Each structure stands twice: as C-alpha cells, then as structure tokens.
Amino acid sequence: MGREKILFKSEEKKTKSEIADIFNRIADKIEQGNISLDNGAGSIDLQFPENMVLEIKVEEEINHKTKRSFEIELEWIVGANEQGSMVIV
User: Fold this and answer.
1) 76 Cβ partners below 8 Å, 6+ apart?
2) Residues 18-28: b if buried by 16+ CB within 10 A, e if exposed
3) Within its chain, how far is the Cα of 45 from the centroid?
4) How far is Cα 36 from Cα 79, in angstroms, rounded to an integer?
5) What is the pLDDT of residues 14-23, one digit of tens each?
6) Closest Cα partner for 11 from 87, 71, 82?
7) Residue from 52, 48, 12, 42 nearest 29 by CA
8) d(CA 72, CA 65)
C-alpha cells in the first residue's frame, strides 16, 4: 500500500447556507472538469476525469456528546478513465 500525502486541507466553521453555496460552486467546477482551491497558505489545481468513484460516509462518535460527520469523497487514478455507477436512494 502506498503512502498518503495531504496536498491541500481547509477546515472552517460555516452556516448551512454558506456550505450549500460552496457545494453548488464545487458541483459546477466538477461538471466543468477542473477546480482551483486556495486557503491562503497554499493552493492546488485539479483536473477531474470523466469517471470517478464517489464515496459518501456518515460517522458517529459518542463521548460526552454525540458528534456526527458527513463526508463526501471523490477518488480517481490520475491518467485513467474508469467507469463507475452509483444509485441515490
């Protein structure tokens, strides 16, 4: 198994409306095939292939309080064009 290297990371507290706006802009960029991300400390340009793997995950952590996370992840092999499908229910 290869090593994982973080190329870009951003974490900020936002309102539901701000998050929805960001998701909409990200969706537009995915459809266009590229996105530029900048957090002030670094930036990255990504080119999206036609087909990617979409992973949606919900986790729950219970300590003194219950904490949930909702994660959306896209994966692809650089230079490859794999086919995949997902059904939204």
Assistant:
1) 48, 49, 51, 52, 53, 82
2) eeeeeeeeeee
3) 14
4) 19
5) 999 999 999 9
6) 71
7) 48
8) 23
DSSP secondary structure string, the chain?
-PPP-----------HHHHHHHHHHHHHHHHHTEEEEE-SS-EEEEE--S--EEEEEEEEEESSSEEEEEEEEEE--TT----------
Pairing of strands 53-62, 34-38: unpaired
Query: Which tokens is 20 given?
Result: 């929805």
Angle (CA) 19 23 24, round 5°: 115
pLDDT in tens, 25-73: 999 999 999 999 999 999 999 999 999 999 999 999 999 999 999 999 9
